[in-house]
Design a protein that fits this description.
The structure is a single chain. This protein has helices spanning about 1-10, 80-90, 150-165; strands at about 25, 30-35, 40, 50-60, 65-70, 105, 110-120, 125-135, 140-150, 165-169. By secondary structure, it is an alpha+beta fold. The strands form 2 sheets. Strands 3-4-5-9-8-7-6 form a 7-stranded antiparallel beta sheet, sandwiched between helices. Strands 1-2-10 form a 3-stranded antiparallel beta sheet.
């Protein structure tokens, strides 16, 4: 899935601020807008403790994509930041397995990094995860997707649509 994720999320575009075209869903803080993938519903964004949830969508098939924002770490490269986030994921969830290599991706014209892994949902069901990290305008954006095991292609397709439709506003 990592190679597919890297290839599909290698979107193009400009990192300049642009007006979001009609039909795009805007993040709760209005820092970006992107598409709502087919079959997904826009969910109300909520505050979390460490990160601010900016965009949250889910499908009837159990797929979900959530975007979180936190302050970008000063003086830390995107590669080091991604390794740190991956390390935290592994430490906090020791049952997660199959971590992919980190892939270079582009989100709204900004270089980022992505990786995938498998684990279990809060209800104990086998789940596929994909994460993309991008730093823009002093903030770190974590785009996290999850899908029931066997739905990885649908997850990658949804994340690809979100990336290709991404506009910084």
């Amino acid at each position: 899935m990592a190679v597919v994720l890297g290839l599909l999320l290698a979107g193009c575009g400009s990192s300049k601020k642009t007006a979001a075209p009609n039909g795009l869903v805007k993040s709760s803080d209005r820092s970006f807008a992107t598409v709502l993938p087919p079959g997904f519903n826009d969910l109300n964004s909520v505050e979390s403790t460490a990160y601010r949830t900016l965009y949250s969508v889910a499908s009837r098939a159990g797929l979900a994509v959530v975007v979180f924002r936190s302050p970008a770490p000063a003086g830390v490269s995107i590669d080091a930041w991604t390794r740190r986030l991956m390390g935290v994921q592994k430490k906090d969830n020791p049952s997660d397995r199959g971590f992919s290599s980190v892939s270079k991706v582009t989100v709204g014209g900004v270089s980022g990094r992505g990786f995938s892994y498998s684990g279990r949902s809060s209800s104990g069901q086998p789940t596929a995860y994909a994460q993309v990290i991008v730093v823009h305008a002093g903030s770190s954006y974590l785009i996290q997707g999850r899908a029931p095991a066997g739905q990885q292609r649908a997850l990658v397709s949804a994340m690809n649509k979100i990336d290709l439709g991404w506009h910084w506003t």
